[in-house]
Amino acid sequence: MSPNQPTTLTVKAVAHWNSGSETTANSDFDSLTRISSGSNTKSLQKKAGELKSPNTKQPGILSVESRIQTQAIQALARVSETRDLYTFSHQRRVAYLAKHIASQMLLYPDQVEGIYFAGLLHDIGKIGVPGEILCKTSKLNIDEVRLVRRHCEIGYHILKDIEFTWPIALAALQHHERLDGSGYPQSLTAKDIILEAKIVAIADVVEAMASARPYRPMMGVAYALNEIVSKQGTVYEKAVVAACVDLFSAGFRLNSVDKFSSF
Ligand SMILES: [Fe+2]
């Protein structure tokens, strides 16, 4: 498999969600039951319970390759931490939310894991953006905006040659793309954006709006959920929005993130 090529499971899931099919796969059913409550989710869970995941790992048993891959990802995330504590903390919270959205969507556990890691590294390209621009409290000028936007391509460049099991580099490249082509850097439309990037995008938007920024106060989770619901189907993937809303309706909170999650 070439680097960054979506896995078979990823391709299946992208096809599934992009086509709007209700077919789904089994996941960590017990933990899903704990975090979900929406009626859509319940019917999906019922179907999920009838299926068997082909890729269920035994808890606590990881291959050496798996462990090294995880350690490499955490080391890369810590590079962000060393450079910019704010971005590191944002990535960790996005990873946490993205992982739970993916679980809520009943994706395969392996894909949920990849989405967590994609969240953890999605903004690693900000390492190539001058710190004074990232921390600027006033409005960015057009050149500064252009520089900030380069973080997607810088992140892809950093990650693309690592043979991760998951399309982590592609998710970093595409996490600011939007279904209607209004995103960047490539103005991709729905069918060309991988599911991992669509999930990280929504987790990114919700986390960003729920938190304070150097240039504005926090807007809150309710505001963020209104925003994604108002643009579902046009800007944001409907199934991802529904899973995110269900999650928060069931009592999910972002403020409990204090360390790397483990799988
Ligand atoms: Fe970003």
Please explain how this structure is put together:
With 263 residues, the protein is an all-alpha fold. The protein has one domain (8-18, 28-48, 64-249): Hypothetical protein af1432. The protein is 57% helix and 0% strand. It has helices at residues 8-19, 29-35, 39-50, 64-83, 85-104, 109-121, 131-134, 142-149, 151-159, 168-174, 195-210, 221-230, 238-249. α4 crosses α5 (85-104) and α5 packs across α11. The longest helix has 20 residues, at 64-83. It starts with 7 loop residues before the first helix and ends in a 14-residue tail after the last helix.
* Biggest β-sheet description: none
Number of strands: 0
Uncertain spans, ≥5 residues at pLDDT below 50?
1-57
Report how far the terminal alpha carbons are from each other: 23 Å
How do the SSEs run, as a string of H and E?
HHHHHHHHHHHHH
Q: What percent of the residues sit in helical stretches (DSSP H or I)?
A: 55-70%
In CATH, the architecture is Orthogonal Bundle
Q: Total number of helical segments? A: 13
Q: How many domains?
A: 1
The top-level CATH class is: Mainly Alpha
